[in-house]
Amino acid sequence: MRIESIQVDGFGKLANVHFELAPGLNLFFGENETGKSTLQQAILALLYGFYSASRASPKETARLESFRPWLGGAYRASLQYVLAKGERFLVERDFNSTDIPTRVLELPTGRDVTGRFGHGPHGIVPFAMHHLGLTKEVFQGSAFVDQGQLAALGDSAAWISETLVSLADTGKPDTSATRAIASLEDLIKTRIGTERARTTPLAQARRRLQEAKEQLARLDDARKQVAQAASRKQTLEDQLARTRAELKKLDLLIIFAQLADLQGRLSKLVKLEERLQKLEEQRSDLQPYAAFPSHLYENVVRLRGALQQARVQLTQLEERAPSEQEMKDVERSIQDIYNDISDLEFVRAIPADLEVQVRSLEREWRSVRASLLTLERNRQRQRRYASLALVAGLAIFALAWFLPTNWQPWGPLLGAVLAVVSGVAWWRMRLPAASATASLQLRLFTIIRSAGVAQEDPEGALASFYDRAQKRQRLTMLEAELNTLNEKQDGLRERLRQFEDKRKEVEGLEGDLHRFYGEAGIRDTDLSRAWSTFDESCGKKTEYDGVLREIESTQREKEALVGGKTRMQLSAEINELKTSQDTILANNPDLREILPKAATGAPTKEREEQDKLRQELELEIARLDTQIVEGVKGHRPRAEIEEDIARYQREVQSLENTRKALEIARETVKQAAEEARRDFAPGLNRELGSALGKVTENRYKEVHIDPATFGVTATIPETGRLEPINKVSYGTQDLVWFHLRLTLAQLMSSLHEPIPVILDDCLVNLDSPRLERVLAFLADYSADHQVLLFSKDEKIRDSFGERPSHDDSHRMHILS
Amino acid sequence: MKILHFSDLHLDASFASLGMTSSVASQRRHELRAALRRIFDKARELSVDAVTIGGDLYEHERETDDTARFLKQQFEQLAPIPILVSPGNHDPYVPDSIYHRITWSSNVHIFREPRFTPHQLAPDITLWGAGHNSPSLRDNLLSSFRPVGPGTHLLLCHGSDLGSVPPGKVTHCPFTVGELRSTGAKFALLGHYHGAAIRPEAAPLYCYPGSPEPLGFDEEGPHYVLLLEIEGDSIKPQLLPINAVQYHREELDVSDIGSSDDIRARIDALTAQWGSTLIRVTLIGSPHVEVDIDLAACLSECAPKFRFLDLLDRTYPAYNLEELGSQVTAKGRFVKKMREKIQRASADERPILQRALDLGLRALDGRTIRVL
Predict the structure, then answer these.
(1) Which residue of B has its CA nearest to A52?
(2) How confident is the model over A173-196, as pLDDT tens digits?
(3) At a CB cut-off of 8 Å and minimum separation 6, what does A788 contact?
(4) What's the gap in Å between the CA of B84 and the closest CA on chain A?
(5) In this predicted model, what pLDDT tens digit does every residue of A150-171 receive, in sequence order?
(6) Under an 8 A CB cutoff, do B16 and A750 touch?
């Protein structure tokens, strides 16, 4: 686009001015307050209007009003422009009202093509957007270069990159995507918080939410337990109701059984009392025997038995008792024997067995004596032989000494031995055999003499001895007979004594019986009659005692039956039970049908069990009641917790959504910035590379722009190294800056339409050489892109005026 | 015979969804109790013969012991006027319910079973009531029910007329008007729907008195109790306003405002008419992108002028996204990308993406970003 002319009827201080612009470099020169800035704003307002949206914002309206013509009159302007393709348009705007009537006319036909661009309120006709491919914001940011921008270059060469990046990111020189990303990142970190953060708003909100949820969970748990307790209580209450109904039933059955029991007892009581009356009558009849000593009965019976037995024995003993004659005969026989024994007293000293010894010795003596005679004859013969041998030996001994030596010593030795042996034999047979016989005889006579026999003649002594021995035997026999008689006499005496004893016993027993009978008041001497009387009385006494016992037993039975109660009391109890029974039946008519089936026994044990169960159930129900009442105490109302949870959930949700939105925004901005810079960088590189060599007389031909940071580096000719742009001269930096800044402005158009650039006194601080070089650059640049340079600097004016103009491509406009 | 009927009081209800602070919500719960006192005052004032409650008297999950004592006290004080209660899905007759726990005064009769059982209101008037015994009783109790005995028969229950189910309302004990009519009952005193209705208009057969106090912003307008007068065969149902509090919703289009201060001014302008209500103001429209809406500050300044103010921001800055997206700058590319994402996104994701677009543009413009 190239602006061909501008007509301002009224805009701020400008009124009725017209500018025909050159297609290349246009210098608008004027002192301060001559309308340079107003003209720039008029161009902007003509291209884009004052309003950006269908609804007018006060800020925009205020801006509109701020350019209302100072001197009044029409608030109106028009602008004619031509596009690269040759299309020519005229735009007319009337800023007098916020409606801003706008027309876009196609030239040279003059056809109104406003509707082609979509006609909105407040003069929103986006023809400039359609023709330039730039929004107002981007156009303003990229095509307008104010005086401060180049001035800032003096402080930092990095500003070139920053400005370029900002322009590429947002179309504004001072707002970059990097800053936007940092801003979003900062919001995520500080205003919301990351997942790991603990003190940031999101973490705190989550913690509050979690705490509230835990509160609710605890409450729910408590309520669940209460519900379970209540459910359990309901079950137990049902069971309790059944138990109570069962108790009612059992009560009825027990009353029924008690009634039956009491009625049975009453009936039995009547019978017992009738029986007692009869027994009392019997007792009265037998009263005389009440004190009879019937305890003697056993003794009497025993005595009677003993007496009867004693009498039998007495009879038997009487029959066996000896007579007086029999006793006398025995005494006489004993006397006779005593006399005989006295006669034989002299042989008593002879031992009874001496005769046997004597007869034995006698036989031995007689035998030995016969043997002795034989032996004596043999001994005498053998002594003779020994005497002969002795002599012979002595003779041999004596003769041997005379014999030849060859007989020596055997001859004398033989004779000596013979003499010794025969001598010994002879010596031993020197005593006669008669000595053994004499010893036996001596023993025999010694014994005989101990029996009182003094005779020397053995045979006579023996005969005498044997006579005495016979008498001694006689004495022994008499003594035995005496003993027999004595025993007989003792036996007779014993029998007599036994008889006497028995008789006395019988008399004693009879005395005892009389004494017992006497104790019983029976004075009859006739024991038989007395016994009959005693026995009969004992029977009555026994009968009396029996009646007494029966009375006691019956009374005990009565006591056990009614426990001391009277018939009236029993009847009252029965009536009371009947009333209770009727009451239960009246309240529980369905129980009436169980009575006919009721068992006779009272189900007391079952009732006890049921009552125990009832008590247990009541206790458990009471415990559950407490649990139900206490269950949720200490908890906040659920509604309040839910409200907290909802509030915290909203807070968390809002923060999470915001974080998500911030993260999406951050990532998308990052991607968009990378893409934009990546797309801008090649164009910048290309344009800068070709242009810089030209304006620096090929000193800097190799220039590189980093696609991420737009950092500019150039190859220094002296070193041949690639260095940051701040290493080159200020003049070169100016050129680089201008070139990049203006190239980027051209790259901003999505339609690749050349954009007119408006420089607002941005060269004012340059010294003359630098100014010249920049103006030379601008002159060159304006061959492809229209440049509107606004300045109050006379140096620029002069420099511009001195520049040769081969055609009408450059023009100076004086504002006054 | 005069009967005062109400339902759906929802004592101890939670106001979690209304964005209320704890103190405001707590005050609302006290106002629900106050409503019960007013109803019983009305019963005394009208000398009614009975008070019937069509369920949801309280919320079982949220009830407190204090509410139990309050109900016991109120019911006792209304004696000897009989109170007949048909528990609903929010206050079912369960073992741990207030109905079961409390020993009620003799003037209180609670229908415990999910089937119609009779209660003699007068020699010639029988009230048949049924109660919920679980939070989700979905049986049709009317299809096979026929009142027995002479005289006039009334029904009391908490159920859903399938012919007039409000949007989003869950049905309990459903029935049709045909089924109700075929029971032969003279009139049905119902509960469950929070909006009042006597139907059919020509020959009234049943009534939902609605909630005596509104419970949310979807229950605007007056709220009622029902006075039912019976004289012989004649039935005269009449709705009597009872609510002390009103909810109101207002939408404010702030597209044309110059600054956020204009919002405050517009909300202030509502105080004259709605200052005593609980109001929800929803900001809509597309204000200029440079307008910075500080909702928290606005709410803080305006809320004291209303009984309760809930302020929602549904605005979206008036971006010319088409134009912005056509730019070759990073900002233009960002807009283009975000618009593509929004276009592809599901309805759930879209609000977050739109927010991301706004946040990104604010960051790229260097404008103020309000997180909450």
Answers:
(1) B320
(2) 888 999 999 999 999 999 998 878
(3) A3, A21, A26, A28, A40, A43, A756, A757, A758, A759
(4) 23
(5) 655 555 556 777 888 888 898 8
(6) no
